[in-house]
Design brief:
It is a single chain. With 150 residues, the protein is α+β, with helices and mostly antiparallel strands. It is built from four helices and six strands, in the order βαβββαββαα. The strands form two sheets. The protein has a three-stranded antiparallel β-sheet with strand order 1-3-2. Strands 4-6-5 form a three-stranded antiparallel β-sheet.
């Protein structure tokens, strides 16, 4: 199967633009498979007309009762495919949306810092003294472990 990745740069904040992107990609034969870090991963299949909605911190049972099927659940951001167009949409709390989006952006910030720690660790590696790890090298390792466990 073929895959395509698109940056989430503008789409997670603007729901209408995100839903429009998903529906247009479905008409082209690209269906959302996963959201990871700062990328939307699409999978190539037979083109179809699909309708999508975005929910924040909803219970899976409520989503199924609303006539939807969960495509992706990413830190509480739920991208769902609407199967029953006549079902009542679920009510959402604005506070949930802000909380989920701040969690996602905090995670991507921590991920960026972890990548920077790895880059600095690799860059510092040749400067170890007599084969023994120096204090800055050990500090980089501890920072790396911290971000992995976070």
């Amino acid at each position: 199967m073929k895959y395509k990745r698109i940056s989430t740069k503008d789409y997670l904040v603007n729901e209408d633009q995100f839903i429009e992107l998903l529906e247009n990609k479905a008409l082209e034969g690209w269906f959302l498979r996963n959201i990871s870090l700062n990328f939307l991963t699409f999978e190539k299949r037979t083109p179809q007309r699909k309708h999508y909605k975005i929910y924040y911190k909803q219970i899976n049972k409520d989503i199924k009762e609303a006539g939807c099927r969960i495509i992706v659940n990413y830190f509480g951001l739920q991208v769902v495919e609407v199967e029953d167009l006549f079902a009542q949409p679920l009510k959402q709390d604005v506070g949930d949306k802000k909380e989920i989006l701040s969690t996602i952006y905090n995670f991507t910030t921590h991920y960026f810092l972890m990548i920077m720690a790895i880059v600095l660790l690799i860059a510092y590696q040749p400067f170890k003294i007599h084969g023994l790890p120096s204090l800055p090298y050990l500090t980089f390792i501890l920072v790396l472990i911290y971000f992995i466990l976070l």
